[in-house]
Design brief:
Blueprint lengths: L2 E6 L19 H11 L3 E5 L19 H13 L3 E10 L11 E5 L6 H13 L4 E5 L4 H10 L3 E7 L4 H16 L4
Parallel strand pairs: 1-2, 1-3, 3-6, 4-5
Antiparallel strand pairs: 4-6
Helix pairs in contact: 1-5, 2-4, 3-5
Length: 183
């Protein structure tokens, strides 16, 4: 088990996000690219439908999207060589009480393996990254990966106020957390 699968379901935009509407994740693609550079072996899947058409994290979109059909087939055929699936998102800096964090880990009660968020959380904190951990809700990508294919999964939200340099540093810290957990 060596590969990390990165998913970016909210990459497609139809309109520009603002304080009242967040139709896509502005920093998620750059964060996934930074993670792909930092991790030794990755496979990246980028969403093909805007969230306003179909939220690709939800079960009702599992068959509506080429992204989800390809991901499902890939997980089924390669689950024995995948170390983890990281579902990459981003949030505007004014979101709820998240403004003080560089990164948020959204943990699904049924959709993840508990070791992955602990390893990443502890590794990020040890490396000086401001990280919050919150309860996720009904993330079908995580559920499919873990419950159907036994692939540990975690949703990672990057703060959209991070500079590219800081995104790279956080991506490096995630990679180090997974492959060299002790600092």
């Amino acid at each position: 088990m060596t590969e990390i699968v990165l998913t970016v379901p909210h990459a497609a935009c139809q309109s520009t996000p603002n304080r009242f509407d967040h139709p896509c994740d502005l920093t998620a693609v750059r964060a996934a690219q930074a993670l792909a550079r930092a991790l030794p072996e990755t496979k990246v899947f980028t969403g093909d439908l805007p969230r306003t058409v179909c939220d690709l994290n939800r079960v009702e979109c599992r068959t509506e999207s080429l992204f989800r059909r390809i991901l499902t087939a890939y997980l089924a055929g390669n689950h024995d060589r995948i170390l983890a699936l990281l579902d990459i998102h981003s949030y505007p800096p004014w979101t709820r009480d998240w403004t003080n964090y560089e990164i948020i880990l959204l943990v699904e009660s049924a959709g993840h393996s508990p070791w992955i968020y602990r390893v990443i959380r502890d590794g990020l904190r040890a490396r000086g990254i401001s990280v919050g951990v919150l309860q996720g809700v009904s993330n079908d990508i995580q559920h499919e990966a873990w419950l159907k294919h036994g692939v540990p999964a975690l949703l990672i939200e990057f703060n959209e106020s991070l500079s590219q340099e800081r995104i790279e540093a956080v991506a490096q810290a995630v990679a180090m957390s997974l492959y060299k957990p002790s600092v």
